Amino acid sequence: MKNEDFNLTLLNAARKIHHADWNWKDVNSPFARLYMVENGSAKVILPDGVHIIQPGYLYLIPAFVTHSYESDSVFIHYYFHIYNGYDIFDRWNFPFEVHSDELDVLLVKRLLAINPGIELKYSDPRTYDNFSTLTQNIAKSSQKSFIFGLETNGILNQLFSRFLDKATLKQEVSDKRIKKALRYIRENINKNLHVNDLADLCSLNRDHFTRLFKKEMQCTPMQYIIRKKIEKAQLILIASETSIKNIAYGLSFDDVTQFNRSFKKVTGISPTSYKNQYK
């Protein structure tokens, strides 16, 4: 992993007191969430089961992980919403919880102290899980003073390092040519990508490139490309009012029918049904 891959942007931060009102279902956001509990406990329902969050730990929920919250008593916690544009969550499996120590508590409090005024006005995720709010918060983050911005990045990196210490690679890509192809796909996902062009980029013939790619990624180049396009479509669907037709053509699908078919194959539901879940 390169240093620039860990370019983290702090979007929102606050210490929040809830009175049995931290109850939200099927939350799915284009940013990661970092939590530290000060008092009380609550439930977080993730795809792998129900987790109790409580003092003494740091908690991390990656972007695009659908989850729910439940609380039935007084619950005090710190929250930080963090954006990363380099797919670190696509390449690494991060643990949900890690033990925190006195230094972590001090870092969390300092991070909040040097980033005042970025608390969410409302706790309902539906009010901030959208593209306009995301871009506004990124813009606000870029306006921080250099000194506080540098300190903010340092603290975020320290806190994330707690999770990275126990993280595992989802896939270890050893072939530099395939790494080059993956970076090209990531940077050009809106374009009409062809396997022949990727093979040429890697100075390989199509068959050899396809075999190498499948060995490294456990799928064909086109399967990978379609999956990444659909993941991008999921972000656009929940974060903007862009029409399904414009999303399809914006991601270089031949037509809406092909896009709908690919979307349902990857997610299990239609684009319309997916979007309606987050209205």
Automatic annotation (TrEMBL):
Q: Where is the HTH araC/xylS-type domain?
A: 179-277
**Which keywords belong to this entry?**
DNA-binding, Transcription, Transcription regulation
Q: Name one Pfam family in it.
A: HTH_18
Mind listing the GO molecular function terms for this protein?
DNA-binding transcription factor activity; sequence-specific DNA binding
What protein name does the entry list?
Answer: Arabinose operon regulatory protein
